[in-house]
Structures are given as structure tokens and as C-alpha cells.
Amino acid sequence: MYVILVYDMGEKRVSKMLKLCRRYLHWIQNSVFEGEITEVKLRELLEKAKALMRPAEDSVIVFSSREERWLDKQVIGREKNSLDNFL
Amino acid sequence: MYVILVYDMGEKRVSKMLKLCRRYLHWIQNSVFEGEITEVKLRELLEKAKALMRPAEDSVIVFSSREERWLDKQVIGREKNSLDNFL
Lengths: 87, 87
Description:
Two copies of one chain form a homodimer.
Chain A: E1 2-8, H1 11-22, E2 26-29, E3 32-36, H2 39-52, E4 59-65, E5 72-77
Antiparallel strand pairs in A: 1-3, 1-4, 2-3
């Protein structure tokens, strides 16, 4: 399935979350990732994310769609990570 | 249609963008908004966003889906703006 993941983490935990998400998804903006991922891999990612998070302070939101074609993407301004989009 | 909007703005322009997006969508996390919006209203929002942005530095990404039910949302950790979700 296709997911968009956004996180909001305390400063001390940001870099660990960034590294973790990069192993599963493509980074497209500050704290925003997207990509095709299986349900099993997503569950694995979220379990690892939970272990990094302080639930009262941090949050992760995952939007998922069974089909990528159900979602249109429009980028305005700088494409932070345009290379990654072609991988 | 249903959209997810994420922005990455230079510090000086963040608060203006936040205010602008709040007029059209629901704030759900740091620089992340979602909501039902018409194409006309989205175009209006993006025109106003462009006027605030420095294209070489800032970016706005909009994911859109014709139907909200095509997207699942999962929140882990703190629900930053849970009230807004019920509006």
C-alpha cells in the first residue's frame, strides 16, 4: 500500500526518527515521508517508532491508501528531495 | 476533494502560512493540514501560498484524493489537535 507519514518529535529524538523512516520510506520534506510499503513492514516501522517516541509529546500520523493512483501529488516551490522521487 | 497539505517554510514566513492554511483546512500536526476542500478553494489557497513563499527555499506539498474514504489515517502518540478533527 501507499503511505504518507508525518512526524512531530521532540528535538532530541528527531534524528533517530529520521533515520528510522529513511529505512522504509522516501523522504520528501522536513518531517514528511512517502512510499509504497507492505502492511507487515509498516507495522514493523511503527513498532520501532513507538519505541523511540514519548507518547505524551511526540506524534506520528500515517495516511494510507491501497492504491497510489488514488492520490495526486502537487509540489509548489522547492523540491527538497527530487532525486529520491525517482528511486 | 480531500487533501493533505504539508509545508516547509523559512522561519519568518511560517506564521503567515499557518494562518492562511487554517482558513481553509484543519491543522493536525506541526506543519500538516487536512480537510475537504473544493478545487476552486484549493487553487485560491495555493495562489495565496505562492504569494507568501520564496520558491527557492520554501515548499508546499498537497496530496489530494477524490474521496476521503480512499485514505486511512492512523495517529500514534499525542493527538495534537483532536478537537479540530471533530469540527
